[in-house]
Automatic annotation (TrEMBL):
Keywords: Transferase. It comes from Bombycilla garrulus (Bohemian waxwing). One of its GO terms (cellular component) is cytoplasm. This is ATE1 transferase. InterPro entries: N-end_Aminoacyl_Trfase, N-end_Aminoacyl_Trfase_C. Residues 66-160 form the N-end rule aminoacyl transferase C-terminal domain. Signal peptide: none annotated. It holds the Pfam family ATE_C. The keyword Metal-binding does not apply. The keyword Glycosyltransferase does not apply. The gene is Ate1. GO terms for molecular function: arginyl-tRNA--protein transferase activity.
Amino acid sequence: LKVRVVRSSPPSSQFKATFQESYQVYKRYQMVVHKDPPDKPSISQVRLVPVSFEDPQFKSSFNQSASLFAKYQMSVHKDTPSDCGENEFTRFLCDSPLEAEHDPNGPECGYGSFHQQYWLDGKIIAVGVIDILPYCVSSVYLYYDPDFSFLSLGVYSALR
């Protein structure tokens, strides 16, 4: 048995070289030990989208995100349709006082507010609203498709 300590942040060359192999071990572990389904969202199915109506990915996924938000709010929190329309969604989870900032020493995505979208079979099944700041990541809100509650996407998102 050989054990290596490999720097993950910032990622070392060893970390980068062994990432896929490590991820496959993690995925097998999750399926065997924790009984995760094989179709649980993977890293390639998660998109980090800046909260900006100028961003093409944000604009193209806005309607799907807003509809998912309404479905979640009505199912989980028993809101009425008028409580979770597009205006309420925009006010609650899209209007942010943070301004996007790109620091050369910061993360590649920059700082600001983001929607971390979880995609499965071409549709968004969960969105984690997060703020990426210089010294922390703040989870603002998470909503998901109640039809996929068996995937424990809130737990997955928090751990991710």
